[in-house]
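Cross-posting from the modeling subforum.

Setting up a comparison between two proteins and wanted a second pair of eyes on the formatting. Protein 1 (sequence, then structure tokens):
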Amino acid sequence: MKGAAANGVDADGVDANDVATNAVVLRAGPFSAQIERRLLVSSLILTAVILVLAVAALCRGDSWDSPGEVLAALAGYGDSVLVVREWRLPRVAAAIVFGASLGAAGAIFQNLTRNALGSPDVIGLDAGAYTGVLIAITVFGGTAAGLALGSLAGGLLAAAAIYLLSLRQGLSGIRLIVIGIAANAMLTALNSWIVLRAELDVAIAATGWSAGSLNGLDWNELRLPFLIIGALAVLLAFLSRAMHQSALGDEVAATSGVHLGRFRLLIVLAGVGCTAAVTSAAGPIVFVALAAPQIGRRLAGAAGVPPLPAALTGALLLLAADLAAQTVLAPVQLPVGVVTTAIGGTYLIWLLVKEVRAKEMRA
């Protein structure tokens, strides 16, 4: 197994032995049980680290509160109840839920494209959702429902255009990614044009929004995105078996009873919805969806990209990034998107270098 895992990636960016490894998992009961145990253990460890970081983030304010004071405030006691429950807790909850949503969206599109670069922020879905938000702000006034609908509509239109353009001679992951990168560039230019044409106060708000930030979020602003993400999480739970079968290849999925056309439609809707819900509340937060699925996959030791470790890793990454954004230049608070861009840019360079080297080794 170890020797096989070192063989690199194929033309679509998937590890060369992913399909073979999955087939072994399906046949070998003990090995499958070992993979499931590692998945469970890694998920529990990620959850524990998230809880520790969440308590640390709740302690972070103008001055650091003790964990005992924070826990008492959560229970409704002490002088910090308002600060902890109404100011800090929404931000921490947003970091966890939005990070999990982005991680799950990344897992969806990396499974669909079978490529580690197939994440919503790379293939233009974040930019499309942001276009919808900009139109909602400049034309319809920017209510919470309007932002959510605009973000979802923009993401869906971008996904539909990219998907249709990549269908020539069958769906190809690498073609979808290349077309998505081009669409991302065009949508980014369109977004810049919309901001330049907007009124000054709208342009200032839109520019700040584009950085991706959790600053100032309250429960009223989070209620609708949380409801959308919760509904999509239920949908993903129902689609998890089909997603696993699809990761083995279209032929295997079809023979196991997966209706590929309907499955792809539902899974794309779920992925776009996860991205759009985050963008509608916090703006486009990039690179979490790119990095979290691959990190979660390696922690779980799984072939393919399982959504649960990806979601937990995404929650951990965004929570840690937001805590860093509050601390690095305190008392100035950076937008969390600035931190995720710095981390994700480094990860993207490493990923590209790794794929280039893998192709050179096979040549």
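Protein 2 (same layout):
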Amino acid sequence: MEWRNQLEPGALIGHFGGNPPQGFSLFRGLPLPAFIAPFDLLTTADEDLKSKLAELPLFARWSRWLRLTTGFVGTTVTEYAPLPPTGHKPEELAESVRQTLGKRYLLSIIKDIPQQCPMLSDSDNAYAQALVQACEAQGFVLVEGQALAYVPIDFDHLDTYLSRLSSSRRQNLRRKWRSRSGMQVHHLPTGPAFADDDVVDSYYALYEGVYAQSEVHFDKLTRSFFAALLRDASSQGVVFEYRRVDTQELLGWNLCYVHAGRLVDKYIGMSYPAAREVNLYFVSWLENLQYAIDHGLTHYVAGWTDPEVKRSLGASFTFTRHAVYVRQPLLRAVARRFASRFESDRQWRDQLEQR
């Protein structure tokens, strides 16, 4: 099934349903993907608020009450919330969420609603805007979401792309790109190449390494999820695998998808500290751009994390909104009052605009 707002193959949604993240459970009572998960209210809070709360007496004790069982509409494996293609008016969908998840849980969130994304159709963008308006009319609190990075492939050579960057950034990237000469880079289609459990184990171990050093720990994906993704030959997945030329040590991997004429970057695993020593993050960025050029793709979709780094690499950004329903009216008013303290990427964008 194709949903509204899909930038990736539907197979990811299917595998999410079959192998949800650790501690997550699916919710079946809505006409679109939904799940239940523990949610730390400080996950997206700005650093100033986090530090002020941490200084309060007995924070270590009472902070556990900030972790709530929450109902979510959407998935953690799609860039946007997959919304029904037909048959459900935005007002009806908002009401349905309010009457199901909203009655069962203190907090319910329709996550990752697009805001005029240039990679979506006019119809999908209009439906998303109508859903936001319907949610607001029904008492949801709107919170600005994360910045999705993307690069339009409107150049036919990496030199053209690099020429658009500052002189210092261009020189820095060229220097890091030279690290590729010490690597073997393979483009492996998902499918039979990953039949061996030992291969999946080695990939999952590198994913866990990236997860461990991440600042945000919301969804830890399971080994069974990655096994399903890596072995799915029908999904048009391509794995960029990086090994040392001399020792064949696995330095890292990057799972992307070719969908609707775009290269969508989804998951990465890295062997630390070796990956940092060879500038693998930046090598993989340029490798993905070169792949998109070679295959005539229109965009490289680079995900949500590290917006400042991706801005320095020439990425553009499009933002999301979350529609949050708080069951208790008093707490709903509090949430509306402090919503801006949970919009770190919007604050980052506003700071850029003031420079």
